[in-house]
Amino acid sequence: MARVVAHLGRPETPQETADRKAEFSARYRNSKTFRNLIAAILVTVAVVFVVVAGVPRGEPVAQPQPDVPALAAGIESDLGRPVLTPSLGEGWRVNQASTEGVGGTEAWTMVYVREGESGFLRVAQGFDADEAWVGQVLDGTRSTETTEIDGITWNIYRPSNPSGTGNIDYALATPAGPDYVLVYGDAAPETAALAAESVTSQIEQLREVP
Hints:
Helix content is 37%, strand content 27%.
């Protein structure tokens, strides 16, 4: 016997029973889909949290410094003449050391940076170069004064537009036999002088190269 529906005051017809069951099934499916979606989101968030929490928070491993003396020795063996190995002292580290084309000339170039501070200093030995090479590197800047460091006379360059020279605002340059030595960057003049002084003996040796 069909059940009496209160709000109808009579038994359901077969069609009303079918409609009611279909509506109930639809509501059940919709509610189940929504619950599954929420559960999936919660699981995803939990997985992401675990992955993030598991990532080590230690300091990045410092890259080893290039071995300037070893690299210079190899180049020196190939060229048959002294190759620079500057020393800037405590607090400075070599960030890069390689031969590269600088201003159209092959040069042995070392880039020094100071630990925990901004600023840089490059020391370059331009092979078979002259003063014209310095002008190319420094965007046409000319020297208007000189200074003597450890018995070596250096030309001083002060680029008026550092943004056009890669943030270089001070440079020292001197001939060294067949080569030219350039010390340049945005470090203080005192630091540039320290780097220049550290290669005095090698410049003197280069000046004796026939």
